[in-house]
Design brief:
Elements (H helix, E strand, L loop, with lengths): L2 E12 L2 E12 L3 E5 L6 H9 L6 E6 L8 H4 L2 E4 L11 H11 L5 H10 L13 H14 L4 E5 L7 H18 L2 E5 L3 H7 L2 E6 L2 E7 H6 L1 E7 L11 E7 L3 E7 L10 E3 L3 H9 L9 H10 L6
Length: 305
Amino acid sequence: MTAALRAQGLGKTYKRRTALEDCTLEIPRGSVSALVGPNGAGKSTLLNLAAGMLEPTSGTIEVCGGVPGSGPEQLAKVGFVAQDTPVYAGLSIEDHLRLGARLNRAWDDDLARRRVERLGLDPRQRAGRLSGGQRAQLALTLGLAKRPELLLLDEPVAALDPLARREFMRDLMETVAEHGLTVVLSSHLVADLERVCDHLVVLVGARVRIAGDVEDLLATHHRLTGPRRDVSTLPGDQHVVSAAHTDRQSTLIVRTESPVLDPAWSVGALGLEDLVLAYMSSPDDGSPGGAATGAARRTGLEVVR
């Protein structure tokens, strides 16, 4: 499948701080990708690089077949709603629509005005007097009416109440289905992402920990529960993502393409939130059993060697 976004060895540093390091990933065209990770993991940096707002320190990034921000044609392919859902407080909704039409040659005015009407917004109202949910919807309207190939959303629902979040996500998915664009959505709210996303990228410590199709990832990750076990005794094809132990019991999250045949284990499925939290809580140090060791260090759990 053709990639809407492709990064190879991508890195960004600010003086002595590394915001993104050795990032290699592909976002398939037509996907709705969840970009998740703790604060400071590099999510906003990656989105700003993809939008052409930043330049890489190392590596390469390609978006919709070109270099981000390289010219008017390339800029037209990408819509970006930044973390604070930026709108101009002193301008009315109508002013925003006119500005969007002036700045974007592929502007879909009918789409924008239909959304404003359906949302029950008064075009004469100034953006500064809108609620947080209404501002987020206005920002999304501007991003969609640009008719981009790729829409980047950086924590667009972080400040919204649960009802407003649901309405925002519903509207987003309806538009995605109608226009077939690619979306990369950064959020801490994994439960919201689970309903709408078919692709996942987890960033931890400025690095990509895991990326792939959600269904494939869930099918190859398992929770194993059984008698206390030294993780080094597991088959070589079972990569331990996280490990927790009591005096008598071990609970592991492992990634494997093969069936788990050991009758001592009780094998359970994972949800998307379980999967994300396992990788976020156990940064891999690259050594055998490193993920399990990382989990123990962060949680105070013991890893048996």
